[in-house]
Amino acid sequence: MRVAVVTESFLPSLNGVTTSVLRVLDHLAEQGHEAIVVCPGPAPREYAGFPVFPVPALDYRGFRAGVPSRRLTRAVLEFGPDVLHAAAPFGIGAQALALARRHGIASVAIFQTDVARYTRSYGLSLTHHAAWRWIRRVHSSADLTLAPSRASLDDLAAVGVERTAWWGRGVDSVLYHPNRRTSTAGRALRERLAPQGQALVGYVGRLAPEKNVTELAPLARMRGARLVVVGDGPDRGALERELSGTDAVMLGRLEGEELATAYAALDVFTHTGTSETFGQTLQEAMASGLPVVAPAAGGPIDLVAAGESGFLVPPHDRAALVGAVGALVRDPGMRARMGEAGRRAILPRSWRALCAQLVEHYEHVAEPVTIR
């Protein structure tokens, strides 16, 4: 199968969209499919043996937004795909889906970034409804839209997007594993971060307005615990000011084995974003054997079994967040039970299984319609 992947984010930017696209490309290469990538520039010339076509892009608060261009049109049409995969389409993804419809190319759109809710986080509330209208227009031009959670599917249905289905996200349960806690690197990190045996409460992710990271601040003043923040972004300065005078640790952005070791060194994982269509860091934390505390909104509702693998708290309720995290800090047995339950829950969610399901979606939309 020939797949043209048009994505709003790609290397060197690392985020949920990029990670998903990379795993899809890895799977396509492994299974012998052909593919190209069209993405905002600058970008590497190829990935997994597939050519990459960067298009002009603009910067906005750490995001690279691709600008629709003839380069996209030329790359897609010259490749002649069986299916077009639009990852988190909004700008160049919208152009690609319109192009596919005009030329009779089957298309699958991945709803992964809740742009409409992000507009409020960035102080653009007047554009919230306009953003949802644009999302409906873009996704209605796809043959099929895939969303990663029940909440996302409900949101799409509410604005009139039809032809939808569920497609989740995989997790590398070998890389993210509780055994890293007792590795040489894991023990060294815990000794450095918890010299008095504190419970380590961690956050991993982009430090940006939509993540509500300043709501982590009360956790840094919790007795018997130490807050550890992994990540970077435009709200780093605001969070550092909120954490002034505490012993919270900011490790910056980590990748690969360093990131996996950091997860495993923690005792509790917490997340504060309320506009997550899925919540990949929650899944990585669960694979690492951690109990999770997250808002009862969006993707976390599907991922966290409340009272079994963690706690879901009301969005923006700092007292509830502190209460749930505090209960886990005080009870090592509860942490162990919930961590084990979380890891068991995510073990079937391998990238291999999820990408195989995605290829089935490709084949379904690419099947010629038989007229009787």
Automatic annotation (TrEMBL):
Cross-referenced CDD domains: GT4-like
Keywords for this protein: Glycosyltransferase, Transferase
Annotated InterPro entries: Glyco_trans_1 (IPR001296), Glyco_trans_4-like_N (IPR028098), Glycosyltransferase_grp1 (IPR050194)
Domain Glycosyltransferase subfamily 4-like N-terminal: 15-172
Tree of life domain: Bacteria
Organism name: Ruania alkalisoli
Chain ranges of the Glycosyl transferase family domain: 192-344
Protein name per its UniProtKB record: D-inositol 3-phosphate glycosyltransferase
Signal peptide interval: none
